[in-house]
Amino acid sequence: MNETEELVKRITEGIQEKKGKNIVVVDLTTTDNSVCKYFVICEGNTPTQVAAIADSVSDYVRINAGVKPTVVEGLRNARWVAMDYSDVLVHIFVPEDRAFYNLENLWADAHLTEIPNLD
Predict the structure, then answer these.
(1) Strand order in the sheet with 88-93
(2) Domain 3-115 sits in which CATH superfamily?
(3) CA-to-CA distance for 17 and 96, rounded, in angstroms?
(4) Closest CA to 53 of 24, 79, 28
(5) 3-state DSSP call for residue 107?
(6) Residue 115 — φ and ψ, nearest 5°?
(7) By the number of CB atoms within 10 A of the CB, which of 27, 32, 62, 109 ranks highest?
(8) How far is the C-alpha of 55 from the C-alpha of 51, rounded, in Å?
(9) How would you write the pLDDT of the chain (119 residues) with one tens digit per residue?
(10) How far apart are the first and last CA of the chain?
């Protein structure tokens, strides 16, 4: 497993730590002109849970992979939080905003991996 794939794994674990759900990893490694190698997209039920997931990802990745996000945007309203880890962009949504923006389907040729929800 390379460094970027390990980062994706740690990010998903941080999401699951706060019961984030419907996690999808969008593999953009074979997509020309993409802004990063992976998107990790998930959702929380409320803005409070979205903020908690973002905090969990930040802490979990820092502790377990020694990496901090370069930018975190959207915490004020916490309906869509974006976290930039350079090669990996994390998007944490409330369900209705996720459905509206539909980021999973921006690239028709990207490979999508769904991570099962933890109960």
Answers:
(1) 71-73, 80-84, 88-93, 38-43, 21-27, 111-115
(2) Beta Polymerase, domain 2 (3.30.460.10)
(3) 22
(4) 79
(5) coil
(6) -100, 125
(7) 27
(8) 6
(9) 699 999 999 999 999 999 999 999 999 998 888 889 999 999 999 999 999 999 999 999 999 999 999 999 999 999 999 999 999 999 999 999 999 999 998 888 899 999 999 87
(10) 27
Could you tell me where the beta strands, DSSP code E, fall in 29-116? 38-43, 71-73, 80-84, 88-93, 111-115
- Are the beta carbons of 23 and 44 closer than 8 angstroms? no
Cα radius of gyration (the chain)? 13
How far is CA 3 from each of CA 28, 36, 43, 85, rounded to the nearest angstrom?
16, 14, 25, 12
Q: Is the dihedral of CA 6, 108, 71, 99 positive or negative?
A: negative
Q: Residue 90 has which token pair?
A: 């994390």
Closest CA to 50 of 15, 7, 24: 15
